[in-house]
Amino acid sequence: MTQQKRARVIFHVDMNSFYASVERAHHPEWRGKPLAIAGNEAERHGIIVTSSYEARRQGVRTTMTVHEALKICPNLIVKPPDFDCYRKTSDLLFQLLRQYTDQVEKASIDEGYMDLSQRASGEHPLALAKRLQQDILTKLKLPCSIGIAPNKFLAKMASDMKKPLGLTVLRKRDIQEKMWPLPIGNLIGVGKKTEEKLKRIGIVTIGILANRDQSDIFQRYGQNGLKLWEHANGIDARPVDPDAWDRYKSIGHSVTLPQDTRLIETIRKTLDGLSDKLEKKVKGEHVASYELTLVIRYSDWKTQSKQFTLNQPLYAKETILDSAWKLFCLIWNGQKVRLLGITLSEFQPISGASKQLDLFHYKEDAKEEHRYELIEQINDQFGRGSIQSASTLLSE
């Protein structure tokens, strides 16, 4: 008799209000008090990056200015972000998860997937999740929610259903009751613009999308729409990939100039072209970078490089070019340039890239986001390269 194949058991571990929770782990006196992470707190011009659940209950929201937040929550504790501390804490978290299984995929600084299908102990998944949740709380002083499901998408949906300190099981046979009645905006992957489009054709719940004709959804919204339809029906064949995070240790491009030059116009144009290539690469991989390295090789073959670590994620050409140009102006010694190179590293999935916003750039960033999303949607539906930058077409 053939042995019956064991069902997949996937956990999605999602840390609750991670930055604020890390701060409170280091400052026990802040527990139970409203706390927000924001920039430029002294000038009251910062934007709230994240906040504790106590602050959220009083109306504090992400992207709200510190000044606005203090108006509705006068006792709010405001702390500037400490990204180095958050990254170190994240490393400790994933070390702990790997004590349970080597099948751990880091999805962002504060969330990850675990494949526990082959667990040797035979322990019930819910009991195992409770033990893991308590282990994280005891050892790291951090709360988390865990979703338990037969695939990654349903596990992530499950972890969102109860916060903080939630434990939710979502099997395929449960989706009609637990997931389909939810508003379409609750389906992971549906942003505000997509939600508006779906609602215009009567798709107001996840269940309505799941029961729409598959070919109609594909015709209207392309591959992205088809993926949403599959997810609404609980379909997701992606494996937990332990190497996914390390696969993007660095992405770089360099170019040797046709002739050695000091011409600023040529140098700037070269950096522009490199930034354009990097934008395509990181967006194709759906990641954002927090570290940029610029390399300059001079006519005498001597090479100079400078690394720049950022609190804001890089994934758009304009911001990559801006950072590279600042580094160039900082380190260039005035000699003729033979080669230029830009390398991005310290990646994070773009869905989880937390941006430290400030009052002076927030509106500008919001405008850029709309444009990038629109270009991505068109290229996804009609094929890569349907819309390209002018500099790319000119170089071709």
UniProtKB/TrEMBL annotation:
Its main location: cytoplasm. Coiled coil: none annotated. GO terms for molecular function: DNA-directed DNA polymerase activity. Mg(2+) binds at residues 14, 110. Residues 10-191 form the UmuC domain. InterPro entries: DNA/RNA_pol_sf (IPR043502), DNA_pol_Y-fam_lit_finger_sf (IPR036775), DNA_pol_Y-fam_little_finger (IPR017961), DNA_polymerase-Y (IPR050116), DNApol_IV (IPR022880), PolY_HhH_motif (IPR024728), Rev_trsase/Diguanyl_cyclase (IPR043128), UmuC (IPR001126). The keyword DNA-binding applies. The keyword Nucleotide-binding does not apply. SUPFAM superfamilies: DNA/RNA polymerases, Lesion bypass DNA polymerase (Y-family), little finger domain. Binds 2 magnesium ions per subunit. It is found in: Cytoplasm. The record marks 19 as: Substrate discrimination. It holds the Pfam family IMS_HHH. Its EC number is 2.7.7.7. NCBIfam families: PRK01810.1 (NF002492), PRK02406.1 (NF002677). Belongs to the DNA polymerase type-Y family. This is DNA polymerase IV. It comes from Sporolactobacillus spathodeae.
